[in-house]
Amino acid sequence: MARITRRAALAAVATTTLPHFALAQADQRPSLTIAVQKVSNSNTLETPREQSNVGYRLSGLYAEPLINTDWIGDLSARPGLATAWRRIDDRTVEFDLREGVRFHDGTLMTAEDVAFSFGERLFGTGPEREAGRASVLAGSVGKEPPAEVVAVARRSVPGLQGIEIVRPGVVRYVAATPDVTIEGRLQQNVGVVHSRAAFAAAENWLAWARRPVGTGPYRIAELRPDVSLTLESHDAYWGGRPPLRRIRFVEVPEVSGRVNGLFSGEFDFACDIPPDQVAVVERNARFEVLGSPINNIRIMGLDQTNPVLANPLVRRAITHAVDRRAIVDSLWSGRTAVPRGLQLENYGAMYLRDWANPRFDPAEARRLLRAANYRGEPITYRLLNNYYTNQVSNAQIVVEMWRAVGLNVQIEMRENFDQVTARTPGRGIRDWSNTSLFGDPVAGLLRSFGARTEAERNGEWTNAEFNRVSDALISSTDMAQRSALFRRLLEIIEREDPGYLVLHQAASFTAKRRDIAWRAAKGWPMDFGPNNFRLGA
Amino acid sequence: MLRFLAFRIARAALTIAMVVTFAFVVLRMSGDPAQIIMGADAPPEAVEAFRIAWGLDRPLWEQYFRYFGAILSGDLGRSMRDGRDAIVLVAERIPATLALTVPALLIKVGIGVPAGIYAALHRNSLADRVVMVVAVAGFTVPSFVLGLILVLVFAVQLGWLPSGGQESWRHAILPIITLGVGGAAVLARFTRSAMLEVLGQPFIRTASAKGVPWRMVVTNHALPNAAIPTVTIIGFMVGSLIAGAVVVESVFSWPGVGRLLVVAVSNRDLAVVQCILLLVACTMVCANLMVDLLYGLLDPRLRSAPRQATA
Asked: Residue A537 contacts by C-beta under 8 Å, 6 or more apart in sequence?
């Protein structure tokens, strides 16, 4: 019979309790509370269901793609869960997977997880795979992804033929047709890598989507729909131990609530700060506001089917009558930028440095209106109540600029986008924005305009030549040819047959404690990784 | 009394049916839930699949009768946004809302009624004028303005209380005060008016002339007669317990039924909106029913009125 000695008992107690105690003592990392307008639009955290600024902000904290984006730097690609990648041919890219990456459940990431993340997770496996299933109704009763997940996946990685596992640690992304944008597409958060085993263990798709298991620096501890999201440090994170023990995102719908909570010390950060509140926050020496232009461009859509706007001369006049710089200076205190057309500098070789928006030229606008024989017929501008930051103020300013050249634009308030885009008499001008999820016109311009896009689907704008050129650009692998095709697209849609008017880049402002050293991203994502947080600034 | 009760219940059922119908028509006509919930950039095939799955592609009358039939069988539907039963979602939020509205109701009644009685009994005195000035101020200041002022003073400047959220009982103090002050002001005004009207009645003069002590005149004769309009207002406040804090819940980020309603309406999450409206309608109707029954208890003439009418 075994005897339990006093020494053995003490040793047993020591082995079971002391390490935990030591860990607890060592974990002096701070926790943060961050006020946001919205935690999740869909009450889930699966990236294909959270394709908006709300989801873009948080997803990088708990999930990562094969190729990361340098959000704080120049938005360029950088190694993520893949350490290197190479072109095999014009439709295949091979990836070396990072070794030793652990999911939040402690398992090691494998090539099978990558294949799962681009297969069953996005497209399902069942007989209805092609058709897609409908919304979360399906998600609550099985594992098949809802229709919108499949649809978003198809749009994000079109032509994906499959992920081939070459050998452990090496996978190939194979597209059905030549595609030079594969690397860019894999920077999107739709392509994050999740744990196949954790998905298999989830009760249903909805349960999975509320708590997906990824590799990011923080794991999901609790999602309280419409209330809060709590993330906890993933200490086994491959990039180093995260600097924060816990991050709690609290949903505070009112701007005043977020700012007051910051001032009262309840929040360390307050997101979604409108420009007119920047000075209010910074009057308090304990706080500062960070932010800059992001990878989203505010535009105004021009409806070709409107009886007045059917004449491209009127639309051209509209584009010449707006002083974009004045809007940026007055409404945004100069804290954002006017892009050179619907493109961003991170387009790399595809960026047209010599391109310019139609210049602000009231005389030219008046000349074009005379040429169009425009006689003051009313043009309707359907407007939402500040869905976009400064939307109503911007509308009032722009309408006055148009009035100054003789355009009779009348604002009609609407409650939602469905009412704005409804095919009813009077649809004319509307607000819109365009996000480039990676650096290529395919991610920006051609996401909204061209064949089978929203503009065409809504019957707002289409152009046969534009569609032909855009198809050629999508399938071309010759960068010089692609650049020339992109230029032609901009000529058509911004000068000859305007489909929109570029206003400015959107900007995201975050208020925070001044004693925290932290850098804001040039996009929606918030980075609280090992290299972007320090107390005592 | 049974006839009186049956008439009131039938009227209540009709009111609820009308609310359900109105909510259905307004929500269906003011936006496509599929497009709103799935977002402006959703691919058309996904939007269409969503419509089919939720029966939004069916004729409106068919959707209505299906919905109404489901309600009669006790099925209030699922949230299109969340995937769970609407009633579960709403039921989750009710305790949070009641945690604000019940204490606020106690404040309203506990402060408003005594203040109104005191002001009426001391008509044209300094106390009366002070009570009425405060009441008018409380009545006219919108709850979101009062809420923000309270936050600025007690959360930002003094740092005594949190500015929003639902983590502890301290988080409930400012929203309860915000809700309670406005209601107390309303009750004070109504109670004062009702008391003044009753105090001017001949039977009060008669009771006083008979030598009944003034305290007894007030408690036995004036207060019961002045109670009817006051009970009406309190009944309305009881009916608002479930969804009477929409603005305050938004200002204080309080995750109750009101905030759920705002989110559900903006997303056209029909089942949730209709579930809340149904609940509110039922609460309001029940409160009105109770008020009607209280009328009968408070004033015997109302109990006998239907009988006289049919005689």
From this structure: A514, A515, A516, A517
